[in-house]
Amino acid sequence: MTGADPTDGANAAGTGTADGANAADATRSGAGLSTRRLLAVLFREEWRLHTQLFGGWRFALFPFVIALLSVSGTVALVETGTAPATVAGGLHVLAFGFGLYSGTAGFAGSDMLENVFGRLSLLLSSSTTLPLSRRRLLGAFLLKDGLFYAVAFVLPMALGSVAVDGLSAATPVSVGLFWLSLCLVFAFGMAVTVALIAVRTRGTPPWAIGLVVGLAIVGGWATGSLEPLRRVLVPISGSAVAAGGLAVGTLVVAAGSLLLYDPTYGRPSRTATDRFARISDALPIDDAPLVTKSLLDLARSSGGVWKPFVSVTILLVLVAALVGVVDTITGIAPAPGIFFGGVLGLSAFTTYNWLTQFDSLEAYLTYPVSIADVFRAKRIAFVLVGAPTVAVPYLAAVLWFEATLVDAAVGAVLLAGYALYYYGLTVYIAGFDPNEFLFDAVRFATFTLGVAVALVPTLVAGFVVVPPSAELAVGLGVAGVGLGFVGVVLSSRAGPRWEQRYRNGH
Amino acid sequence: MGAIQVDGLRKSYGSVDAVDGMEFTVDRGELYGFLGPNGAGKTTTIRVLTGQIEPDAGDVRVLETDPVADPIETRRRVGILPEQESPPSFLTPREYLEFVGEVRDLDPERVAEQTAAWADRLGFESKLDTLHTDLSRGQQQKVMIAQAFVHEPDVVFIDEPLANLDPLVQEQVKRFLVSYAAGDNAVFVSTHNIDVAEEICTRVGIVADGRLVTERSLEDGGDDESLLEVFLDRVEREETRDTPTLERLET
Predict the structure, then answer these.
(1) Domain named ABC transporter: which ranges (chain B) (predicted)?
(2) Same-domain pairing of A346 and A430
C-alpha cells in the first residue's frame, strides 16, 4: 500500500466548471465541483437517505423525540437529587459516545457499511467512477455527518441544560454554550474513531489497535490521568483554554487522520476452511444451518466475534465512569449487581444489531424457510453469542465494585431476563433492521418507553436500597424472570408479524 | 396441467399496479422467456410465483402447489435465482452450497458431488474456499446459479441468468439451461436480453405495464418479424394505450 490517492494530486481549488469539454481533462480531477457544492449535495443525500429509510417526513420528528427525552430525563434526574454537574457530565459522556459511533462512517467502503447501505449507493462511493478524490470526498462526508448530527441530535440533547441551569433570560445563551460544549466532545469522539480507522487502513491489525486503546485506558486509570481528561471532556465546566485546546486537538486529529487514511486500502481475498458442516452438525436444533450461517457471518466479518464484546465493554466503561462520577459528587453508590445487571442487558440491542448486519430477510425468501424460522434462528444465535459476551463484563463489574452475593445473584437474573426482554422488544419493533429504526421517531420512542418501563424502577431501586433487602431481591428476581418471559413472547411473535409485512410486499 | 399456471394475477404497491391481470401457463419441457422493460412487473410476478409475496388477486399454481397458501412447499420444490444481488456473505461457496443443501434437506454426499460438478462446469473450483464476499460479481453469480440447481428441481425461476458472466461461461449456462428444460423440466427466465431469449427459449411472453401483451413460440421459427421487432411494437403499443398522446386526444 502506498497510501497515494491517484486523484489527490489534482487541484483542490474547486473553482472550475463541470462542462462536458472539460470533463475529460485529467488535470482537473474533482475541481469542477466546489467543496460547498459537494457538501450541499451530500446534505441532500443524507436527508433523502433518512426520509426514504424511515417513512418520509416522520424522520423530522426524531430531533423532537431526542429533545423530549433529554429534557424529561434531566428534569427527572435533577428533581430526584442528582447533582446538575453529574447530569451535565452524563450528557457529555453520551455525546462523546455518539461521536465515537458516528465516526464509524469512516468505515465506508469496508464490508461494514456496504452491508448496511449496499455498494455504490452513496455519493461517497462515486470516487470510484468519477474524477473525485476519495480523501476529499471522505473529508466532506465526515464534515457533513458531523454538522448534520450536531444539529439533528446534539442540539436537541443540549436542551437538557434547561433543567440543569433553570429558565431565565439567559437560557438561549446557556443552551447555545452547552450545545457548543457537547458539539466539541461529539466531534472529538468522531475524530478518535476516524483516526483509529485511518490507522487500520495502514495495515495495523485490529487486535493491535484494541490493545493500544485498552492499555491507554488502563494506564490512564492507573496514573490518575482520567480525572483531568474528564474535565477536558466537559468543556462547559472547564476553562476556555481547555475547551480551545480540545477544539484544536480535534482539528489536528481529524486532519491528521485524513492525511493518514489510505484510500487505496483493500484486503486481499480471504479463504476459510470448511467449518459450516462441523458447526451445524454440533447444534442439536432444527434451525442449525440458519444459526450456523449467522455465527459464521459474524465471526468472519470485520472485527470478528469480538464486535459484540467490544460494544458491551464500551457500555460497561461508560456506565462505570458514570457510577464513579455519581459516587464522587454525591457520595451515593448503587448496588452494583442490580445496577449493572439492568444496564448491561441493553447490550441485547447491539448484539442483535451485529447479528443482522450481514444478511437480509429477502435473501432467505429464496429458500424453503419461513421468516419465523429465520427469527427463531436469530434468537438462538443471540443467546449463543450474547450470553458469554455479557457475562464476562458483568462478572468484572460485580467483582470490581464488590457486590454482595445476593446483589450479584439478583443482578445476574436481571441481566438474563432484561436482555431477553430488550431483545424481544427490539425484534418485535424493528424486525431485521435494528440499526435503522434508531432514526425512526415513532419506533425509537416506543423502544425507549419499553426500556424505561423496566430500567428506570430498577435503577432507582438499585440506588435507594443498598445492599438490596431480601424483599427487594425477590421482587427484582421475579421482575427479571417475568420480563424475560415477555421478551421470549415478543420475539416469538415477531416472526409472524414481520412475515405478514414482507408477504404483503411492504 | 402446466408446471406453472397464472390466472388473473394482480399485485399493487400503494397506488402503483405492478401486475395487472397477468395470465399464462408454462409446461414441463419449456424454456419460457419472460421479456419486458424495467418496471413491467417481471420480478413481482416471480416473487408471487415463489411465495415471497402475496398477490392482491388471482390464482397461481407451481408444480400443483399453491405458493400463496404454502410458500415453503413451493420453494422446496423449485429453484430460484433472484435478481437482487445477494448480500455479502462470509461463507465460502463450498459452505454456502452446504448451507443450501441442509436447508433443502439434501444428502451431504449429493451436495458435495453437485458442488464439485458445478464448480467444474462454471470454473470456480479455485474459489471454493474463498469467502463469498470477496468473490467478483461474476463468480458470485456462478455460485448463485449453482444453488438454484443443486437440488435438481423440476421448475427453476431465473432473473437475468447471464448477468456478470464472461462469454465462455455464458455459452455454458445457455447450453445447460436448454438441456435442463429438455429433460422434462420447466425453466422460467426473466431477462432484458432479447438476443439470448431468441437463442435459447422455446416460447416467450412479453410483458408491459403489468400485463402479458403477447406470447410467441420460437420453436417453429417461421415468423417474418424478429423478436426484437415484436417486443418494440407490442411494448410501445401497450405504453401508448395508457398514455393519452396529442394524436389520440384529437381522435
Answers:
(1) 4-234
(2) yes
Q: Which residues of B touch A289 (CB under 8 A)?
A: 99, 102-103
Q: Answer with the residue of higher pLDDT: A26 or A231.
A: A231
Average of pLDDT values for A156-173? Answer: 83
B4-250: CATH topology? Rossmann fold (3.40.50)
Of A267, A300, A331, the position where a domain reaches its end is A267
Domain with A216 in it: 31-267
* Amino acid, single-letter form, for residue A451: V
Single out the residue of A355, A365, A363 nearest to residue A426, CA to CA: A355
Measured distance between the N- and C-terminal CA atoms of chain A, rounded to whole angstroms: 44
Residue A103: all three cell numbers together: 465516526
Q: What is the residue-averaged pLDDT of chain A?
A: 81
Q: Per residue in A256-278, pLDDT tens?
A: 988 888 776 666 778 888 999 99
Looking at A240, A267, A294, the residue that finishes a domain is A267
Chain B hits for A366, Cβ within 8 Å: 50, 52, 75, 80, 82
Please list, in sequence order, all residues whose beta carbon lies within 8 angstroms of the beta carbon of residue A60, skipping any fewer than 6 positions away. Answer: A51, A441
Q: How far is B3 from chain A (nearest CA, A)?
A: 18
Q: Are residues A205 and A63 in the same domain?
A: yes
Coil, strand or helix at B144: helix
A vs B: CB pairs below 8 A: 111
Buried b (16+ CB within 10 A) or exposed e, A368-378: bbbbbbbbbbb
Contact between chains at B95 and A275 (C-beta distance less than 8 A): yes
Handedness of CA B3, B8, B11, B16 (dihedral sign): positive
A355, containing H or E segment: helix A347-355
CB-based contacts of A155, cutoff 8 Å, min separation 6 = A63, A179
ipTM: 0.88
Mutate which of B10, B63, B92 to disrupt the A interface (most A C-beta within 10 Å)? B92
Cα–Cα distances in Å, from A430 out to A105, A422, A426, B245?
Answer: 22, 12, 6, 46
Q: Are B129 and A271 a contacting pair at CB < 8 A?
A: yes
Give A103→chain B minimum CA distance, Å. Answer: 23
Chain B residues whose CB is inside 8 A of the A506 CB are 13
Q: Which residue would you say has higher pLDDT here, A326 or A153?
A: A153
Residue A359 lies in a domain: yes
| Spans of all domains in chain B | 4-250
Instruction: Please state, for a pLDDT cut of 90, what percent of chain A lies above it.
Output: 32
Answer yes or no: do A204 and A318 share one domain. Answer: no
Contact yes or no for B156/B78 (Cβ under 8 A): yes
**What pLDDT was estimated at residue A8?**
38
**A26 belongs to a structural domain:** no
Q: How many residues does chain A have?
A: 506
Q: Say if the Cβ atoms of A289 and B103 lie within 8 Å.
A: yes
A375's grid cell: 427469527
Give the count of domains, chain A: 2
Instruction: Write out chain A residues lying below 8 Å of B100, CB-based.
Output: 367
Are A263 and A343 in a shared domain? no
